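Quick log. Single chain, no ligands specified.
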Amino acid sequence: MALLCALDAFPPTIFNTDLPVGWAPTVELTCHVRARPAPGPLRCRFTTRFVTGGFLEEDGEIWDGDGRLVAQSRQIALVPRG
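-> predicted structure:
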């Protein structure tokens, strides 16, 4: 369950852009848990390639300490209003 929380809890990637910072409500979230992570720290990576038509997509990856991909996500959200 913690992997699912981690996939959804990170701030939206567009907070790193010049767009307004604000609520970016999720329209759709898909998560895939691929494996039980090895004990220890996890590496997380979240990217957005497209911000268009008032929507953004965000892809998430969580890797364990053994270098295995243990979870993935795809989120569609609304772009925050200014």
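Residues 2-9 form the longest helix (8 residues).
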